[in-house]
Amino acid sequence: MRPHYASSIASIPPPKQQQYFEGNRKGEVNELKILVKNTLSEKDDKKKREVVKKVIAYMTSGIDVSKIFPEMCMASYTNDMVQKKMIYLYLTTYAEQNKDLAFMAISTFQKDCKHSDPKIRGFALRNLCSLRFSGAIEYLMPAIRESLSDIDPYVRKTAIMGCVKVYYMQPDYLSNIEEQLYKMISDNDPLVIINAIHALNEILAEEGGMALSKKLVDYLLGRLKEFNEWGQATILDELSKYQPKDDKEMFNIMNLLEERLKHSCSAIVLAVIKVFMNFTKNKPQVYEQVITRVKAPLVTLASISEGNLEIMYTILCHIKFIASKGYNQVFAQDYKCFYCRVDEPTYIKLIKLEILALIACDFNLGDMLNELGEYVTDVDQEISKKSIQALGAIALRLPDLANAIVKQLSSFITLQDYITNEVIIVFKDILRKDPKHIKDCLEIIQSDSVTDQNSKIALIYILGQFGSQIPLAPYILQTFIGAAESVELKHTLLTACLKVFFCRAPEMQEILGKLFYNIMNNENEDIDLQDRAAFYYRALQNNPIELKKLWQNSIKVDKFLEEQNINKEALLFEFNSLSVVYEKSVSKFIKPAEYFNNLRNKEMQDQIQEVQQTTEKPEPVQDGFENDQDIIITNPTIEKNAPNLLEITEQPKQQLVVDNFVLDYRIDVEYFESMWTSLNNGASITRTLARNDIANENAMEQLFNRFRLYNIAAGEEDNVLQMYFYGAHKCQVFFEFEINKNLSTVILNTRSELEDYAYLGQKYVEDFLKQSNLIS
């Protein structure tokens, strides 16, 4: 029997090892050890680089090259930064796995922390601070304290960030470090100052960050121009937390920062605006003057950022934020700046339409209606719908000017169905707030082009609310009864039918009775809907007059509840932050600091425990050539990425679970055949077939796929189904699966690159076959 190959599997070559070095010969680690020794006295840096590159290539391929650790420490005695970076990568990788090797690495880093080259000093300190295991802290702090007073600014700013790393590892070691960091704000180098500010904000996060005094604020403002753009943005962001002692100090700071509003960097402009807004938030008159003053810089930034659409979108979000807080008239004169351009992406057009809806007023409405009317016929349905929504929003916000908008919306009835659907939804909101427009909406309400679910719900609501004024209301409602509609629509339909019944009982009696019957006698109907229908039915039987009074005592809507909720949350938005872009308060998209602290502590404890387990059972390292084999280990650097099939642990787990296997792993047919014939490590079992109903190719493929094992070939002949599967864990596992319906047997043959994984794979498949009751 020749199995046919699964056509759904694309012929993708299997993952290959990194081929930096030629061949795959055994014993090259020992040869590499000799090569590194021989190049220690080499004066040509290029030749040394090639040797170190080869060591890194072996390491990143999962080959254990830890036996070269002493030679690599000796090779670190070089002034070549390229070699230093590669050697430090090697040292930090193996130092975290073996505590004995870690102290050799620490000694190397400590030596380089006193190097004459400041770049090497800073780089050595950075790598020393990256060692995260128990016992490393006591070696870090002396190096950090010494580097904080280094003559070179690069080393000083590296030492500052090292303080933050130590804080997250063990905060107790940072005694009196805050005082020294405050002193470093007076450093001559701007980058050192910025790093000190960031470090203080991290370390003092529970206290609200760095403390600001008038003296410190004056000092930072005096040196503001010395910083780069991001440094200025950082200082201005800190300044927004400061509260001036009196109005004189406030105006002095604002006058000093006003020239920054002309800066081309959006981060600086937004940061200055945030300072102004926070300073004057309790002074309404001054606050309004600030909004008027910052209008021009914001509009200018939005115009000059057309080449950088992401920045443009952010600026537009902040303009929308200001307009939504009641200062929409500030931007009313510049409404043409927010017209959409043909070449703009959809997300820019959408935010511009929202701004236009906010800044519309009596003097610009005529021109704006013509522009929005053009957008309604846009080929992009999203833009078309948003334009209709903008017209509706203007009508709701400016009720005195709503007549012209309603007439314009009514003119869209002859256009595409999706436009009519959106107009119905907008009319629903307009009529909720101002019922007098019902006569202008009658033509489109009685249109038969309503196809969208939301528009159907809106239409039913209008029919129920104004059933006495719409002649065909009962008969339009009748068309929705018995149709397979959503639960939400049925709830709206039940309410609408009751409302129309109270004003047109003779026409609605039979229709309402049919609706009650369909809801209450349908076993598959929503329980809440049935309970509600039963309640109304009993109320009509007992006291229909009181129920009618209840429906007729409706309250006029001035503001929608959803608008009030949005406005309340808008008060929590923080200017110049993601809150403005996401339109959510910070607590809804940023987890609290405690969450990350707990996460770091857990990660640190796991790493300490892992290192302790490694040191309890150290791997034997042989310097000789007795064992002329390469040792394959699990490399933590590789493990963070996609699984490397060279990573084979010496002692596999006693049980495999589905998360152990690579999701959607793919190999081609030729590779499977070559591996199946070449592998000798295998296991085989025979079990009794318990179920014939799922013993078919499709069912088996779906079952194995759920457990991340994938079909490469299958075939059936004379009631014997034969299938081949594969999966990838730390190594590849291959399966031959046979169901013999004549003998009621199931045979599973498993092969792997390691014998242990063959047996574990066999047990893994056997377990889920038993769970599916396929075998007994």
TrEMBL record:
GO terms under biological process: intracellular protein transport; vesicle-mediated transport
Location in or out of the cell: Endomembrane system
Classification via Pfam families: Adaptin_N, B2-adapt-app_C
Gene3D superfamilies, A to Z: Leucine-rich Repeat Variant (1.25.10.10)
InterPro entries noted in UniProt: AP_beta, ARM-like, ARM-type_fold, B-adaptin_app_sub_C, Clathrin/coatomer_adapt-like_N
Limits of the Clathrin/coatomer adaptor adaptin-like N-terminal domain: 37-542
Cellular-component GO terms for this entry: clathrin adaptor complex; endomembrane system
Residues covered by the Beta-adaptin appendage C-terminal subdomain domain: 664-769
Name of the protein in question: AP complex subunit beta
Annotated source species: Paramecium tetraurelia
